[in-house]
Amino acid sequence: MTETVRPYWQNYIDGAWADGGDGTRITVTDPALDEPIAEVARGTAADIDRAVAAARRCFDSRALRDLRPHRRGDLMLEVSRHLGDLADEIALVECRDNGKTLAAGRAEVALTRRYLQYYAGLADKLEGRQIPLGADYLDYTLHEPYGVSAQIVPWNGPLPVGARSVACAIVTGNTVVLKSPEDSPLSLFLLAEACHRAGVPAGAVNIVCGYGYEAGAALVSHPDIDHIVFTGSVETGKSVLRAAAERVIPCVMELGGKSGAIVYPDADLERTAASATRGIFHHSGQICSAGSRLIVHRSVHDELVGRIKALAEQRSVGPGVEGCDMGPLINARQLDRVEALCRAGIEEGATLVMGGARVAQRRGHFMAPTIFTGVRPDMRIAQKEFFGPVLVVLPFDTPEEALSIANGTDYGLAAGVYTRDLRLAHWTAERLVAGQVYVNEWWAGGVETPFGGMKRSGYGREKGQEALLGYVQTKNVGIRF
Ligand code: NAD
């Protein structure tokens, strides 16, 4: 496989490739080498205008709505097929602009194709209801698309996160303007290419890269969008919601997390250690649902920490293209932030078991796998999202105490339970305030299972059948004979 990526990428608007309206570009940097690898057209407010206008024209033309639903599904199957043809290139760009490992880059393509296929299959299964009103009436509901769906995607998993929203929008008859992340935009351009090759109607899917404060803000405050799907941080999410409130636009909000797993004393410690290690160090912890807090019964605390440390030490930290299994953080700013939060943990009295700082021998933005013990629930490292490879371990004595620690943050994205006692697992799962609870395996679930947040982690659900309901509005039709 070649290690070079295409040097210049254009935005995809109205079925065609386009430079940024003002001709400027964004430089994309490889976080593993801290060097530029490509340029992309910088989408500005004017480009967002053009993209929204194209999406509006396409929606109003009924090019998608008048297709039979299973034909919209067929389109997504075609996109999936073309994405498969681009798999090697996608895996490479995921390594180069995103810091993923090659294996993770390939897995992203496979996952994305699953999303496209799954929603293709559901295209003709979103059924309305017939409501009995007596002999003189016929009453039924329709699931109608909102119109132009504005979608904002973060840098950590742009392809699957973007594609799953695009697929839901298209199979329900909406059109899309997607703002790709400025740090790692390349794989979504390849999704655009797959849409183009698949014959998705011009204007149905528009993908524009630009800065959040510029193209992102222009998109979410655009007067002609009808729906917003935002995935990103809580702070940005709040500003998106303020823009949406101005025009009363429905939003799906997928925000951050500080997800904790409770380990009861009867847990299988070998499996728990493997699951917890993957849960925090996969993609260097840059996953919204990373298992960043481990709440461990005091009787098994030392043994479990020892096991996780041993597994973490086996991880090779370095560029994905070199076959390493833990890549860099996305940029210098993020590395500085994670390091600073680690220093705060030490100042507040937590015990650093391993890591705690950048990997100085490497040029890129590599953070050492890090574990803290002796963490109190009120410490900053127990409350703030690192979005990095940092695990904080908190001991507990009773299930009630474990629950109070687990639920004691502003977030409510994911949570976990490790135990052999299914009654206790269910008792705990029901009391955890989180959109998804993983029992005995972090990330148990998949494309088929609804995913989303509680509390400040957001609302609305992506993934699974439930996601489709976030892309349609119910219309009731009552007929008097
Ligand atoms: P971010 O909020 O900084 O950026 C997310 C996106 O919003 C980017 O495309 C950015 O350009 C855009 N943006 C920035 N300012 C904007 C504005 N004013 N208006 C509109 N758009 C704007 O987040 P990030 O650093 O890219 O991603 C990390 C965060 O995303 C973490 O908090 C993580 O937990 C969260 N995340 C959540 C999920 C989920 O499904 N819940 C998935 C992945 C990431």
Automatic annotation (TrEMBL):
Domain Aldehyde dehydrogenase residues, every copy: 17-477
Keyword terms, alphabetized: Oxidoreductase
InterPro entries assigned to the protein according to its UniProt record, in alphabetical order: Ald_DH/histidinol_DH, Ald_DH_C, Ald_DH_CS_CYS, Ald_DH_N, Aldehyde_DH_dom
Pfam families, sorted: Aldedh
PROSITE patterns attached to this UniProt entry: ALDEHYDE_DEHYDR_CYS
Name the record gives this protein: Aldehyde dehydrogenase family protein
Organism, as annotated: Tabrizicola soli
Lineage, broadest ranks: Bacteria, Pseudomonadati, Pseudomonadota, Alphaproteobacteria, Rhodobacterales
